[in-house]
Amino acid sequence: MAARPYRQTVFITLAVKDVGIAKKFFTELGYALDARFCDEDTVCVAVSDTIVLMLLHEEKFSRFTVQPAADAARSTEALICLSAESREQVDDLVGKALAVGGSPAAEPNDLGFMYARSFLDPDGHHFEILWMDQDAVRT
Q: Which superkingdom is the protein from (predicted)?
């Protein structure tokens, strides 16, 4: 019997100040929650079938690391880039983020074959939404 193919999933774990605000923000962007992994200190956001955001209250987050959590409102801990299927989807998702409590992170970047916009979530985590014409960059 052959082994099942392994499907790799990326879990991005971030510290948040208010789990309720984080939950509201990401559900209003249209992402689904995985209730199996949500509790009063955790929000599990299914970005896709292979990307999951684990949003942990700062106190719970601190139990998983020996270093202090970065204050994303004061420094950039990471740039989280998510792909979009079209330029319109980039604008739609960033527009929703700005309408429900996010803030602009940088000016749009339009290279013709690639288009990106970014936002900060309510805790200051930096998200970039990117569309790329794959045919234009193939060699």
A: Bacteria
